[in-house]
Amino acid sequence: MIMLDSPDISSIRVIGVAWIALAALSACAARYPLYSAGEIAGAARGCGVPEAELFHDAEEPRLLFLLTVSPFADQLACVENWAHPRRLRVVYIDSVQGVAN
Questions:
Q1: CA dihedral sign, ordered 22, 28, 54, 72
Q2: CB 54 within 8 Å of CB 43
Q3: Pairing state of beta strands 63-69 and 89-93?
Q4: What pTM was estimated for this model as a whole?
Q5: Alpha helices of the chain — where are they, by DSSP H?
Q6: What are the CA-CA distances from residue 27 to residues 18, 22, 31, 34, 77 (Å)?
């Protein structure tokens, strides 16, 4: 039987500290990629939304903005179906009311 040297406690500590540092660094990494204008435009075309009305902002990479007032249900469902697997939330305007004078 071949006996391998057991690791000493200092090497175990070094490995543990390395794992903790790696976990801390990965927590700081961006989890929400910014999708390209081409990807957003493709999603807009596929959902029947004008390309200028679907927007992904670098300031809030978790949100996908649908700049349409009261979008059709099928358009909204299509955009949400595109956004969901990408872990994005769709933000849209439900209605606009004018100010009475």
A1: positive
A2: yes
A3: parallel
A4: 0.65
A5: 9-28, 37-47, 73-83
A6: 14, 9, 8, 17, 31
The domain locations on the chain are 37-93
Give the model confidence (pLDDT) of 32-71 as tens digits. Answer: 789 999 999 999 999 999 999 999 988 899 999 998 888 8
Q: Supply the pLDDT for residue 20.
A: 66
Q: CA dist 78 to 3, 10, 47, 56, 66, Å? A: 61, 55, 5, 16, 11
Q: How many CA atoms lie within 13 Å of 58's alpha carbon, on the beta-carbon side?
A: 2
Backbone angles phi, psi at 89, to 5 degrees: -105, 135
pLDDT in tens, 76-89: 999 999 999 999 99
pLDDT over 60 (residue 25): no
